[in-house]
Amino acid sequence: MSATEQRGIRPSDLIDVDRLWRRLMRLAEFGATSAGGVNRLALSPEEIAARKVLADWAREAGLSVFNDPIGNLFFRLEGADPAAAPVLSGSHIDSQPTGGKFDGTFGVLAALEAVCALALAARKPRRSIEAVAWTNEEGSRFSPGMMGSEAFTGQRALDGMLAVEDVNGTSVRSALAHVLAAEPDISRRPLGFPVHAYVEAHIEQGPILEREGKSIGVVSGIQGSRRFRVTVRGEAAHAGTTPRRDRKDAVLAAVGMIDALAQLVRDPEDVMFTVGLFRVQPNAPSVVPREAYFSIDLRHPDNDVLGRLGDAIPDCCHANGGACTVGVEEIAHAPSLGFPGRLRETISAAAERLELPWQEIHSAAGHDARQLHYHCDSGMIFIPCRDGISHNESEWTEPHQVADGSRVLADVLWELADAR
Length: 420
Hints:
By secondary structure, this protein is of the alpha/beta class. It has helices at about 5, 10-15, 15-25, 45-60, 105-120, 145-155, 160, 170-180, 210, 250-265, 305-320, 340-355, 370, 400-420, and strands at about 65, 75, 85-90, 130-135, 185-190, 195-205, 215-220, 225-235, 235-240, 270-275, 280, 285-290, 290-300, 325-335, 335-340, 360-365, 375-385. Helix 12 packs across helix 14 (about 400-420). The protein starts with a helix and ends with a helix.
C-alpha cells in the first residue's frame, strides 16, 4: 500500500474539479469561435498563447517544464527515483477548424491536474509522472497528423515532418520556429526517452457510453486507418464554348472516382469511408476545372478488410479518370491494435474502486496512444460526450463526467508510478 493510501487519501481525492473545469474553459478562449467552438490549429498563434498558459499553471504547482525539437510540451512531477522511466499522460491541444472545447484538451488538462494536485499535496511517487501536450495530432493544418507522438517514438523522421507545408505554403519548420522562439524560458530536451507506461484520457467522440449509461470507457484498442490524397489533372477551358466531348474536366472525373469508391467500400457495412477535403483549381464559375484534389479516409477494425479495400483504391481511381491524369498517394497507414490487458485491468479496477460504471470499448478514432503503443505499455480512458458529437463546435461533456475521468486517471497514474 502506498503512503498516500495509508493516510486514507487516494490521488483521486486530490483532484480539484472546479480548477480543472475553469482551466478547460480558459483554454477554450484561445481560438474561440462565435458558435462556441475552438479553431486552434497546430503551431498557430492561438496554440502558442495556450501553451504559455499551460506552462504557467505547471510552474505554479512546482512542476518542471520541457519541450523538444517537434514542439511537444512536457510537465514533470519528479519522482523519488528520477532515473526510473517515467509514466506519461496527455493528449493534444490543437483542434479542427470548427472543433470543440474537449477533444484532446481534456486529456492534457486531466493529466496536468493529476500531477499538479500531487505536487501541491507534496505526494511523490517512486517514478516521475509527466503530463504532455503532443504536437499536431489533428493534422488539420499540417498533414498527416500525430507528428509529435510519431517523432517522439521514432516512427517518422523529423526532417520529413519539418518540410510539410500548409495550404498557404508555411512549413512546419517555419511555424515551429515561432513556437519555440516564444518559449525561451522552457528547457529543451532531445526527442524521445524510455517511458514506463502511457495513459491517455479522452472524450469518446461517439455515442456508446452515453447510450449505455456508463461513466468510463476502458479502451480495448484502436481501429486501423489508411489515408490517401488524390490529384486529378485535366485542362482549363471556357465553360460556354468548349464541347463536352472535348473537355478534360477534373471535377467530373473526381466525382466519378468518389462515387466508384463509395460503391467499392459499401461492404462490409462497418467500413468508414470519408472524403473530407476537396479543392478545385482554378475554382472559377465559368471555367472547366483543370485540377481537383481530394482526401480519402478509410477505417476498419479488421486489418484484412482494411488491407483489401485500401489496396484497391489506386486502381479504382485510375479506372475512373477518363481523359484526365490521376495521381494517388497513400500518406498514412495505421493498422488496428489492441492495448495490453494488464493496463486495461488497472483502469477498470480504478473505476470500480470509485464506484463508476464502466465498459470496454474500441476506439473508432485515432489518438496519440496509437503511436505510444509501439514504445511502451499504453492505454486509454474514455468519458461520454453529448450525443457522441465531436469535431464540431457543439461538442460537449458535463463537468461531472470530466471529474469522473480525471479521478480514474489520477489513481491509475499513481498506481503505475508508485508500484515497486
